[in-house]
Amino acid sequence: MKYKLISAMALTLGCVANANAYEKIFEWNDPIQGNYPAECSAAKTYGTGGGGPGYIYYYDEFTVNCPLHPTLKVGVEKSWSSSQGNRCDRVTVNNSAYTTSWNDCNNWRVYKK
Fold this sequence. Notes:
alpha+beta
């Protein structure tokens, strides 16, 4: 049992270390610093939405340009419903070498894997 616990802890720590090994490339709307780093630029380039009684969805797309990285397209999907209120459903990036994370649809990050 002792060895199973130690093995599980090592596996968990390995996964956590791996998840934190990604290099942050860009952050949109950081609560303290705003968009950063300063050498990157990002702009909303597309937006759409729709819905019906009690439900609305939105999709916004941003172009992110950072030195030494390709131009990236970040898609932000959000919705509102009368039963759940506002939700940030997904934040995606168009390049498999990169990934995203988000606090909400107004604060998201792009990482190099």
